[in-house]
Amino acid sequence: MQDEQIFKLIQEENNRQLNGIELIASENFVSEQVMRAMGSVLTNKYAEGLPGKRYYGGCEIVDQVEQIAIDRLCELFGATWANVQPHSGAQANAAVFLACLNPGDKILGFDLSHGGHLTHGSPVNFSGKLYKPFFYGVNKETGRIDYDIMEETALRERPKMIICGASAYSRDWDYARIRKVADEIGALVLADISHPAGLIATKLLNDPLDHCHIITSTTHKTLRGPRGGIIMMRHNFDNPFGLLWNNGNPKSMAAILDAAVFPGTQGGPLENVIASKAVAFAEALSPGYKTYMQQTQKNASVMASEFMKLGYNIVSGGTDNHSMLIDLRSKGISGKDAENSLVLADITVNKNMVPFDTESPFITSGIRVGTPAITSRGVKEAEIPKIVELIDRALMNREQASEISALRKEVKELMGSRPLFTWE
Ligand code: PLP
Q1: Is 46 a catalytic residue?
Q2: Based on the structure, what is the number of domains in the chain?
Q3: 106 is in which domain, residue-wise?
Q4: CA 359, 403, 407: angle at the middle one, nearest 5?
Q5: Catalytic annotation present for 111
Q6: pLDDT per residue over 99-147, tens digit each?
Q7: Could you please report the per-residue DSSP string of 32-76?
Q8: Residues enclosing ligand 1, CB less than 6 A?
Q9: In a shared domain, residues 265 and 341
Q10: pTM of the prediction?
């Protein structure tokens, strides 16, 4: 039996990716070898447990694969412990919450409506349903994290865990300050670096592993690997909750986190995806990846200034990383309308709440854009003004079908002949 229906759709999706300008900040294009590992026979293997300690026979080879993934990840971030099994970023966070918190415990995270993530305490997510969330946000004038409010809230509410990291925040983080506040109240610090992970690994941004107890990330954004999650620590430590082994020795956080992944929140690991993560980590350890990350950052910085030249309002006035949030209120267009108009021109972005937004999450006043994906396709900073011009024309002429279809042709001319992945 040949499944023509699904493979035809995969081909159509391939063409969509090839002919468009992909600016969703959380997306990327992976290399051929990352994809090959993912589509391998490793998908056939059950391997509950950890390398050398499995609940199934025949794991000698996947044990090697998983250990290589762990070792490469530790080398990449200067960690001494890592778990590469989380199926996604949300799963990595779920495991950390299970390991560190009891239902009803207080947590302090970055407000979703200011750029935070659902899994950092949103009421529609397990993190907001099972735990008691408090939030910090950005300063209305500067668009940057208000660390004074974070500190004030932490000292008043005394959360058991402070979470930093974001889905839509274009500035670097002051991890040292967050850790200092956490130490005053005996809280743990979780840094979710899903978005800027690649920039952190290549030392282009501050290093959260220097200051935060536990780090989570996705592997498919700037890290340019398969869809998945990871958990890391620079230093393992005895758990502060008084949990003991049968022999009376304290349990290490590493052991508690491993158990929170399996059997705590997951079953069998996806060894094909873990192999693919290992390939992506090797790529990220190669010199070419740092060049890729520098280009991604440069492209984002040029993009922000080109938008500002055309009168667009970038939250916080620029970017330190790979992404930016554009507040479209000054242009009189909603995030939803902007997203829809751009899709018609084969330019993909996502609508996004801006800080202090007056629209609902279904409409929003902004869009989020990022450069990891176009940079993987070989776009350099000289081409960014053209891309911003195409976006501006699509938004300004959104009622004119003929202009939009002309734009689509221009987008295809710009992108259609480039491979999806052009890096060594
Ligand atoms: N954490 C942050 C900061 C994210 O931006 C995301 C994804 O957008 C996640 C966690 C969740 O990752 P996943 O979609 O793999 O569950």
Answers
A1: yes
A2: 2
A3: 32-284
A4: 85
A5: no
A6: 999 999 999 999 999 999 999 999 999 999 999 999 999 999 999 999 9
A7: HHHHHHHTSGGGG----EETTEESSSS-HHHHHHHHHHHHHHHHH
A8: 26, 88-90, 117, 119, 165-167, 192, 194-195, 218, 229
A9: no
A10: 0.97
